[in-house]
Amino acid sequence: MQNRLYFNQIDTPRADKRKLVDSIRGEKNSVGYYNLPLQNIDEIMEFAERFDTSIESIVVLGIGGSSLGAKAVYEFLKPIEQPKRTLIFFESTDPLNIADLLKKINMKKTHFFVISKSGGTVETISIFKYIYAKNSNNSHYTFITDRGSNLDKFAKEIGSRRFYLPANVGGRFSVLSVVGLLPLVLCGVDIQLLLKGANNINQAFFEEGYLQDILLNKALFYAKNHTRYNINCIFAYSETLKYFTEWYVQLWGESLGKKQRHSTFNVGLTPIGLIGPKDQHSFLQLIMEGTRDKSITFIKLKKFEHEMYIPSTTLPHLESLDILNGVAFHDLINMQCDSVIESLKNQKEVPLDEIIIPAVNAQSIGELIYYYELLTSLVGELIDVDTYNQPGVEAGKIILKEKLEKQSFSL
Ligand code: PA5
Hints:
Rossmann fold; 5-stranded mixed β-sheet; 5-stranded parallel β-sheet; 43% helix; 2 domains; single chain
């Protein structure tokens, strides 16, 4: 993976950069995700080897960090690596969505992963209750949660298989743990390669490799400009990255939108996920001529597996578009991306950078995931927030529980 920065870097003494790396390195004892690239995956592989071969679909019942990461990886690889099993995500209490997804599965040939770190998330448990009432074959369920949670106790009681999140791994940083690895390996994803990708970035940052300075400069720029360029767009030129951008939105938003640790100020950076060329026909105008409050990271794929060419035909009245004749789609989409980058470079005031991923494979997405996790940690440290908590989402949950309690009394 390559990353080119096209904005002026913040002049920062080397000693300050070293201090930042040291404080991130210091988090390794208390923040679990840093250790995931080198984890032992024997138990996961054993589970996959012994897995019931008659199972055709894997369902994830989970939300937020318990689903978005696996979805990003699965959807990225799907067009290229024919999945061994279909992976379906039940993430919403929308009855239309639940009914629609249920039509896609044969209960007898489906294995359900109930994934909830806390073990008490309303969306996940309500959907699980609904499905469990239809299929109470306990061997069709695997539970992934924190050791000792109420969900863990329930799973123990019904005798289902349980896996635990490793210590100190937060939901939105958990894709490279059992949370993502288990459902993905059962669908044929090469999870060793996924972790290898993550470890490449781990080394390229912590062992003073090619990415250390780039990541530091990027984080310093975002943090220094967090009130000016407070909107950070990823503009990915491949439909395969659509769900990666959803994962990024959760990671960035939930990690960085906080009260500062050492003040009472509310700060935050707003993530936006865009897909090219589609969003050239919608959001681009806002980037180009709107308020100068956005930074843009373009993500490009170097190699698209499919060689498809536009036929060299001339169509009446459309002769001016004969310039497209013989052009490969993979060249066209990257030329579109390059053209937008060039047009924005002329605007000067829009900070840009470009990430180039070599191909659609597990290693590339592992690299991209770990790169963004590290960047999030760095920016969180610099803007002085606790990157790994999410106290802001609790208030609404408490009100919902009160409403549900009131309703259940009146029933
Ligand atoms: O990142 C987070 O911690 C959250 O987005 C959680 O993943 C999300 O709220 C789901 O929580 P849980 O896994 O406890 O069901």
